[in-house]
Specification:
It is built from nine helices and nine strands. It has 278 residues and is α/β, with parallel strands linked by helices. The chain has a seven-stranded parallel β-sheet with strand order 3-2-1-4-6-7-9, sandwiched between helices. The longest helix has 29 residues.
Length: 278
């Protein structure tokens, strides 16, 4: 039986995934900063669910959660780094303390979870790690510079980690969801207290008070959960998994634009090499 450890299960994709995993009979360690918010999930599956309080920025809680998973179920087969939140601000508006907290959760928290589960996965020569990123890491919308940077850091680390652990039987996938109908753009979205008028037509349009996308996103969290399970069950999940038709469209367009830029500036780019010996 597969054992999943999922961070950020109080709502949205994390909760949908925990529910789907438990419904099919797998073990699941379901976590949230407030364990009471996932108690109902665990209560429905007393034999296969373990609800834990977990703040991924707290090293002691990270260690304790993984130890509890190992004690209860023997080990973690699938780690899903889903805990995270959004932050809107023009780069100039961003508060240093806000940005540090953002990276502590969205990047360093995921790293801490990975380092905690890897010894067990290496010992068993098996395991899967899903790092939930965002299309923002690639499309870099105005007003999301810090969030995009945190997710880009997560993806860069994921790519290197995949090459390091694949020979050990461990799979790593970066997951890029598009817009999903969750609390991400509502309760979970934060923003800078500073507002600079010169950014009203760029970053300002995406501040919470001006963004009307919440509640209209095309993505269904339950279907995303099923897609993640399918990828894990395949035994060879991709390095990058897009979720949502909007993600496929916008990332395809972004890659086309990047390729066009590379070709447009190719002649200049190649001038920086040492001359070939005559």
């Amino acid at each position: 039986m597969t054992t999943w450890l999922i961070t950020g299960c109080s709502s949205g994709l994390g909760r949908a995934l925990a529910d789907a995993v438990l419904a099919r009979g797998d073990n699941a360690v379901v976590t949230a900063r407030d364990a009471a918010k996932v108690g109902d999930l665990a209560g429905g599956y007393p034999g296969t669910a373990l609800a834990l309080a977990l703040d991924v920025t707290d090293p002691q809680q990270v260690t304790a959660a993984v130890r509890a998973a190992e004690d209860r179920f023997g080990g973690v087969d699938v780690l899903v780094n889903n805990a995270g939140y959004g932050y809107r601000a023009a780069v100039e508006e961003g508060d240093d303390a806000d940005v540090q907290r953002l990276f502590a959760t969205n990047f360093f928290g995921a790293v801490a979870m990975i380092k905690a589960v890897l010894p067990g996965m290496r010992a068993r020569r098996s395991g899967t790690i899903l790092n939930v990123s965002s299309i923002g890491a690639r499309i870099c919308p105005p007003g999301s510079g810090y969030y995009a940077a945190a997710k880009a850091a997560l993806e860069g680390m994921s790519g290197s980690l995949r090459k390091e652990v694949e020979p050990l039987g461990i799979r790593v996938t970066a997951v890029e969801p598009g817009g999903f109908r969750t609390d991400f753009a509502g309760r979970s979205l934060t923003q800078s207290a500073t507002v600079i008028d010169d950014y009203a037509d760029t970053a300002g349009k995406r501040r919470k008070e001006n963004d009307t996308a919440h509640g209209t996103q095309p993505g269904d969290p339950a279907r995303a959960a099923r897609a993640l399970i399918t990828a894990v069950d395949s035994g060879r999940p991709p390095a990058l998994l897009l979720l949502g038709s909007d993600a496929v469209t916008v990332i395809g367009r972004t890659l086309d634009d990047q390729r066009a830029d590379i070709e447009q500036w190719r002649d200049l780019s190649v001038t920086t090499d040492f001359p070939e010996p005559s």
